[in-house]
Predict the 3D structure of the following.
Amino acid sequence: MTATAAARAKEIAAARAKEIAAARAKEIAAAQAKEIAAAQAHVQEVVRRSGSSFSLGMRILPPERRQAMYAIYAFCREVDDVADDGGPTEVRLAELDRWREEIHGLYEGRPSRPTTLALLEPVRHFGLPREEFLALIDGMEMDARETMRAPPMTTLLLYCRRVAGTVGLLSLPVFGATEAEARTFALTLGDALQLTNILRDLAEDAGRNRLYLPREALERHAIDPTLAPEAVLRHPALPAVFRDLAAQARGRYAEADAALARCNRRRLRPALLMMAIYEAILDRLERRGWDPDRPPPRLPKAAKLWAALTRGLLRSR
C-alpha cells in the first residue's frame, strides 16, 4: 500500500469512527430525552392523582414553569407519603434518608428516581436551593417520628417552616419573584396555609394519632395536652383553642398581604390563587365553628374558580 493509499484509508476509518460516535451520541440523547419525558409524565400524573388545589395555580403558568412546579409538587407529595404510610418508624426514617441521598445525587447530576430526574432541569435553570428540599424532608421526619402531638408553639412553627415555607421558597425562583419581600410573603403565607390545613384536618390527623394544636393553647383553655388526640377533639373547651389558632392563621394572612404590597403581584399569581382558596376555607371553618362530627369543609371546583376570577388570576399572561 502506498503512503497515499494508507493516508486515505486512515481518513476513511477516522470518518467512520466519527459517524459511529455521532450515531451513538444521538442514541444516548434520544434515550435520555425519552427518560426525561417519562419522568415529566410521572410528575404530571402525581399532580393529577392528588386532586390538590395547588394544581389550579400551576395551570396558569407558562409550560416550562408549570412543569417545574409539577416536579416540585411531586417531590413534596412523595416525601409526605413516606411520613404518612403508617409503616414502622424505622422503615419510614430509612426511606427519608434515601430521599436525602437522592437530593444530593440530584445536585451532583445523577438523579435515580423519576421525580428527581424531572427536577434536574428546573434545579439547573431556576437555581432551586438544595437546602429547602432537605428542610422539607426534615419536616416529614417530624411526622415520621410521631412527635407532633400537642407540640410547643416553637416546634409547631418550625414544622410549618419546614413543610410549607420550603414549598414557597422553592416556588419563588420558578415564579420569577426575586424581591427580598417575596421571601417574607412566601414564609408568612406558608404558615397561614399550614395552620388552615391543621384546622381543616384535625379529625383526619387524630386518626393518625397526631395533634398539631399547640401545647400552650391547650393549657390556656385547661385541656390536658397529654390526652389522646381523639379525647382532645371531644373536649368542651376545644372550640376556644380552635378560634385561637384560626386567629393566628388570620394574622399570618394579613402579614402575607402586607409583604405582597412590596412585591410584583403578577409573578405571584399562583400563590395568590392558593391564598384566595385557603382563606375561603378558613372563612367556612370560622363560620361553622368546631364540630368533631362534621366532615372538613371542601371548596368545590366552582368556588375555587370563583375565587380565582374575582381576583383576576386565571389569565395566563
Summary: The chain has a mean pLDDT of 88. Residues 148-317 form a domain with the Farnesyl Diphosphate Synthase fold (CATH 1.10.600.10).
